[in-house]
Amino acid sequence: MAVNKNARTSSSTQKFFCSCGGEIKMKTLFESGKVKTIAECEKCKRSERRPSDFK
Ligand SMILES: [Zn+2]
Fold this sequence. Notes:
This protein is mainly β and 55 residues long.
């Protein structure tokens, strides 16, 4: 796949970073029959319900 240097993160995938500097990844968990999505920091393993809660 060619990378267009003029195109900045053109996708719907928005990146979020924790206050520790780690990247926040979305995780899908299955809990008591329900699908739950959480945001977790790769580095310090802090998890929040939404990426915006890391501020
Ligand atoms: Zn962190």
